[in-house]
Known about the structure:
Layout: E1 6-7, E2 12-17, E3 23-29, H1 39-47, E4 66-70, E5 72-73, E6 76-77, E7 82-87, H2 94-97, H3 109-116, H4 133-148, E8 153-161, E9 164-165, H5 172-178, H6 189-204, E10 211-218, H7 232-241, E11 246-251, H8 262-265, E12 269-272, E13 275-278, E14 286-287, E15 290-291, E16 296-302, E17 312-316, E18 321-325, H9 336-357, H10 363-368
Antiparallel strand pairs: 1-2, 2-3, 3-7, 4-7, 5-6, 8-9, 8-10, 10-16, 11-16, 12-13, 14-15, 17-18
The chain binds flavin mononucleotide.
Flavin mononucleotide is lined by residues 58, 107-108, 125, 128-130, 133, 243-245, 303, 305-307, 331-332, 335, 338-339, 342.
Amino acid sequence: MLAGNSIGKEFTVTSFGESHGKCVGVVVDGCPAGLPLSEADVQAELDRRIPLQPKIVSERIEKDVVQILSGVFNGFTTGAPISMTVENKETKPSDYEAIKDLPRPGHADYPARIRYGDFNDYRGGGRFSGRVTVALIMAGAVAKKLLSTYDVDVLAYTKAIGQVKMGKLLGYDEIRKRTYKAAVRCPDLVCAKAMEEAIVNARKEGDSLGGIIECIALGVPAGIGEPLFDSLDADIAKMLLSVPAVKGVEFGEGFGAAELKGSENNDAYLVQDGKVVTQTNNAGGILGGLSSGMPIVVRVAVKPTSSIAKEQHTVNLAKMENAKLKVTGRHDPCVVPKAVPVVESAVAIVLADHMIRAGAIPKVLKERK
Ligand SMILES: Cc1cc2nc3c(=O)[nH]c(=O)nc-3n(C[C@H](O)[C@H](O)[C@H](O)COP(=O)(O)O)c2cc1C
């Protein structure tokens, strides 16, 4: 049984579909009625997933077209479950037939085979494929629309690819404007070029790269979250660690806080324009599992793609002997650029859930009362 495909308490998201099945899809339940929503809204988010730069992404470039099957009537959500699908058109199961018994090091093939035996759909990584993140983008589109009614804005961008790190500090508007101008989704366009080159070079060597994505949520009011076990940071971390290839999550100063003194790490309070703010934001906008009213800042570490053309040691599970493997087929030499909108969507979904749980009423609905 593949349980564990739903997340959220009030705004719930259920993901379904595999890399080489008919479609990938999602059911979003708990979205209030009266939210304007169209296929074009969701499509716009899907279109941001695949950078149109063939040098840095897998050759599996699909035009993902969303179909909303339920939950929307006359351009507004009805309050019923919203189900959405995207067809898988560019499947190529032959790429995987030869390596069916040769688990790719670093991918989910081996533990999935042990867990699900011969029933495991290994084609394209099946349920463990990055393609499944299309579901998060679709659900994220709904979450982001809902959050916009609370004036909450979520933005993610690439902060590092391999050793190439973005040093420059940019304002939110610059991040918003420039991130999607670069195929690697880094708003510092000079650094973006160096990142792109690093990916191209890694690919030439039959290798891959990882990186760091930062996500910032603006406008989240103070006091959102459900301590203890549904703390806002705990729920965001769980969601982000569910994104394939994400191996680490940190908020604000994160692991760096371990090296600071209390006097350096504490964010001192200040009254500014009649509002309580903090002078710094080492906490990343969350204290005690509740939002502090400061921007929520979270970073994820994304590992280098495991499917690489370089020869590696593996085993032949049918013969139970050692083997060698060069992964051919269509793979991203770095999954970071595609994962940027996924991380943004993932954070938006958790925030939408927690805004509803905190009893916040979306502005559009308030206006109608
Ligand atoms: C958007 C996206 C695209 C991905 N594309 C690939 C890919 O082309 N090849 C690959 O080996 N892994 C890819 N991955 C990562 C694997 O799905 C992931 O490493 C695998 O499921 C094992 O899970 P884990 O790395 O979280 O442990 C992608 C991940 C994401 C988020």
